[in-house]
């Protein structure tokens, strides 16, 4: 049986939507008629909503929180001994959002039809990325799907928490920057022109700073749209250039060496790499396949290139710690912990420790950077306002001296 999304009306004319299981769309319509509904639409749950006119496609994707919750619940049900199809049915019944309910029903339909869970998830690549499906495949092959999903849920939750902390840390500096630009724009577009009218009536010679400020004020008032257009074009051009492999690789190499930000980029990617590699090795995935999958999670192409070099070295017989150490890209702590794990035969535990340590270090560096940015932004804002005030006050002081 397969899962079908339906839309029907009852005898009172009310519209009902949901998911049902049937052998075919025709059989599904028969089920609805037997229940007293008039079917308007019955289609496989896997069909995207974008194919249906008049229906918004917003929100047609699992959020990170929903993905973590689904993974955690599925792991708990499987560890408790519930069969996979019944576990997916429970997730579908308990889903709060229609899309999640339809998604779980579609996955269950594929599983009931004889497909593996990984193959069923492959029908929804936007909701379940390659690394997610690779871990599910490893769990199915080793017979430890529940344990693998439990570790995967831990990984998703920790990754979401880390992203949230970083975003919250940079929220205050971002708000201060926006307010500063707003205040400066108000002063240049309204306050400075009002004062300029007074200066024109006196016909006195204005200081250079005031002349420059008046010219900047005129530009802001008359050409602000051109400035916004230029910024938009510049952003589009930069994104287009960075979409090319060569420029993107050069930029990522520079990002690793950039002051302050370089350590954040390196630390964030190291956490993702170590966490993913730890989950894969714990699931029994071969080291070469695990390295390849972990490298695909890196957002920095320069570090991903170094992982490819390490894979070549490991394939030729080099140990993992030496291969990663030769790249001179990953933190020495990660390399040392992996070497210790190789000596004790417990690489997975050492990878988990390395991931936790790098996550704490990344949080510390993020807080330190934001603590430096906040006073610097306030000082910069104060400096700009001071220049504007001086440009306004200097002619007034000169005029006062002339009157005396």
3D architecture notes:
It is a single chain. The chain has about 400 residues and is mainly alpha-helical. The protein has 3 domains: about 1-45; about 65-155, Receptor-associated Protein (Up-down Bundle), CATH 1.20.81; about 160-404, Type II secretion system (T2SS), domain F (Receptor-associated Protein). The chain contains 15 helices and 3 strands. It has helices spanning about 25-35, 65-80, 85-95, 100-110, 115-120, 130-140, 145-200, 210-240, 245-255, 260-280, 285-295, 300-315, 320-325, 330-345, 345-404; strands at about 1-10, 15-20, 40-45. The chain has a 3-stranded antiparallel β-sheet with strand order 2-1-3. Helix 7 (about 145-200) packs antiparallel against helix 8 (about 210-240), helix 7 packs parallel to helix 15 (about 345-404) and helix 10 packs antiparallel against helix 15 (about 345-404). The longest helix is centred in the middle third of the chain and has 58 residues, at about 145-200. The chain is flat, with a radius of gyration of 30 Å. The relative contact order is 0.08.
CATH topology of the largest domain: Receptor-associated Protein
Largest sheet: 3 strands, antiparallel
Mean pLDDT: 82
Q: In total, how many beta strands?
A: 3
Protein name: Type II secretion system protein GspF
GO cellular component, one term: type II protein secretion system complex
InterPro entries: GspF/PilC (IPR003004), T2SS_GspF (IPR011850), T2SS_GspF_dom (IPR018076), T2SS_GspF_sf (IPR042094)
Keywords: Cell inner membrane, Cell membrane, Membrane, Transmembrane, Transmembrane helix
């Amino acid at each position: 049986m397969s899962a079908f999304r339906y839309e029907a009306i009852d005898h009172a004319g009310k519209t009902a939507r949901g998911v049902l299981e049937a052998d075919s769309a025709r059989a599904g319509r028969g089920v609805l008629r037997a229940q007293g509904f008039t079917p308007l639409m019955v289609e496989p749950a896997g069909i995207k909503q974008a194919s249906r006119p008049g229906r918004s496609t917003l929100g047609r994707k699992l959020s990170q929180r929903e993905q973590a919750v689904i993974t955690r619940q599925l792991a708990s049900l499987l560890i408790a001994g519930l069969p996979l199809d019944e576990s997916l049915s429970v997730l579908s019944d308990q889903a709060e959002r229609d899309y999640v309910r339809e998604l779980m029903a579609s996955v269950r339909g594929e599983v009931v039809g004889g497909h593996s869970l990984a193959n069923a998830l492959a029908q929804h690549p936007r909701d379940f990325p390659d690394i997610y499906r690779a871990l599910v495949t490893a769990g199915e092959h080793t017979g430890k799907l529940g344990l693998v999903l439990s570790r995967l849920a831990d990984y998703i939750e920790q990754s979401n928490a880390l992203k949230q902390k970083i975003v919250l840390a940079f929220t205050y500096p971002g708000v201060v920057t926006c307010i500063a630009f707003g205040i400066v724009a108000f002063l240049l577009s309204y306050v400075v022109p009002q004062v300029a009218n007074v200066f024109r009536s006196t016909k006195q010679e204005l200081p250079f700073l005031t002349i420059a400020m008046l010219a900047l004020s005129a530009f802001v008032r008359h050409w602000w749209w051109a400035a916004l257009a230029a910024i938009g074009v510049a952003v589009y051009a930069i994104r287009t250039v960075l979409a090319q492999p060569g420029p993107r690789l050069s930029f990522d190499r520079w990002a690793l060496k950039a002051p302050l930000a370089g350590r954040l980029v390196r630390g964030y990617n190291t956490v993702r790499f170590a966490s993913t590699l730890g989950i894969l090795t714990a699931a029994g995935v071969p080291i070469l396949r695990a390295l390849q999958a972990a490298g695909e999670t890196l957002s920095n192409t320069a570090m991903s290139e170094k992982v490819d070099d390490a894979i070549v070295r490991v394939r030729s017989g080099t140990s993992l710690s030496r291969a990663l150490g030769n790249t001179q890209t990953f933190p020495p702590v990660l390399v040392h912990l992996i070497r210790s794990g190789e000596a004790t035969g417990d690489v997975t535990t050492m990878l988990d420790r390395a991931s936790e340590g790098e996550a704490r270090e990344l949080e510390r560096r993020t807080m330190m950077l934001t603590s430096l940015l906040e006073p610097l932004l306030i000082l910069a804002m104060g400096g700009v306002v001071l220049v504007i005030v001086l440009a306004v006050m200097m002619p007034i002081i000169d005029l006062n001296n002339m009157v005396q």
